[in-house]
Specification:
The chain has 160 residues and is an all-beta fold. It has one domain (2-154): Immunoglobulin-like (Sandwich). It is built from no helices and 13 strands.
Length: 160
Amino acid sequence: MSESSSAANGTILIADFVNVDAAGKVNIIGGGIQFLGFDPESGLSAPFAVFVNVTVNIPQFEDTSASVEVLLVDTDGQPVTITGPDGTNTMRFSQDVDFRPANAAHLQEPPMGFPGNSNIVLNFPSGLPLHVGATYEWIVLMDQTRLASTTFFVPGPAEE
């Protein structure tokens, strides 16, 4: 669907909590975080969630699927790596998405031109081991095309 990535729109935000219920409704608590707390005792950021929405006008294109990627980068634009029990991992989440609306037998299909969308939620209930005093950026890519981003800062104690 790389042709459609130029016609796609993306939204991304950081919140205290996000979920998508069975009906597809998004529930966001504490959305719009720009300053992510840090616990010096654990060495972890505050718990948080990342919400991503990608919308595409799919009837213009034959292929209705695409690769959507959410990537955490540092101020140099380099992917952030986190060391955990399984080794070092890049903070990159990929998903192949089919943007066609679900076709339920008992429901009328949307009209031609109705946009397809996908919601992605990344929850970090224990936080992440991020550096204090650092700025980070979550980026949304569709077929390698940048759709949206959001920047945040991890403040720590002021130096005396």
